[in-house]
């Protein structure tokens, strides 16, 4: 885990994530804690579920980013959001 709370994907055993990626919904749309969704995405052991988990986490992160934009945001959480999106996009690229 990095100093800003983001978990680096190399800290997990992802194996060959280039295998098939499923888009089956895994979590309720009402689940809004972006950190939980982010962690679930990068720790997902089922290759077929990674793409859906990444999408869920990205949506929650973008929603939280909008909330911070309209309220006084802390730079620290903004940086965490940016780091998490970067890692999720890298994971998605590896999954394709």
Question: Nearest-angstrom radius of gyration?
Answer: 13 Å
Order of helices and strands: HHH
User: What oligomeric arrangement do these chains adopt?
Assistant: single chain
Tally of separate helices: 3
Instruction: Determine the N-to-C terminus distance.
Output: 25 Å
Which range best describes the helical content: under 10%, 10-25%, 25-40%, 40-55%, 55-70% or over 70%? 40-55%
Strand proportion, as a percent range, falls in: under 5%
Shape: elongated
Number of strands: 0
* pLDDT averaged residue by residue: 75
3D structure, described in words:
There is one protein chain. The protein is an all-alpha fold. The chain has one domain (9-95). It contains three helices and no strands. The protein has helices at residues 34-43, 50-70, 75-95. Helix 1 packs antiparallel against helix 2 (50-70) and helix 2 (50-70) packs antiparallel against helix 3. Mean pLDDT is 75; it is low at 1-31.
Which helices and strands occur, and which strands form pairs?
Layout lengths: L33 H10 L6 H21 L4 H21 L1
Helix pairs in contact: 1-2, 2-3
Summarize the structure in short.
Helix 1 packs antiparallel against helix 2 (50-70) and helix 2 (50-70) runs antiparallel to helix 3. It is built from 3 helices and no strands.
Please name the defining characteristics of this protein:
96 residues, mainly alpha, elongated, disordered N terminus
């Amino acid at each position: 885990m990095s100093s800003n709370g983001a978990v680096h994907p190399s800290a997990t055993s992802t194996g060959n994530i280039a295998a098939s990626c499923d888009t089956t919904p895994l979590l309720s749309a009402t689940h809004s804690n972006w950190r939980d969704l982010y962690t679930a995405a990068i720790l997902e052991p089922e290759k077929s579920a990674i793409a859906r988990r990444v999408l869920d986490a990205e949506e929650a992160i973008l929603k939280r980013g909008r909330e911070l934009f309209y309220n006084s945001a802390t730079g620290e959480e903004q940086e965490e959001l940016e780091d998490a999106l970067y890692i999720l996009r890298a994971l998605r690229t590896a999954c394709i």
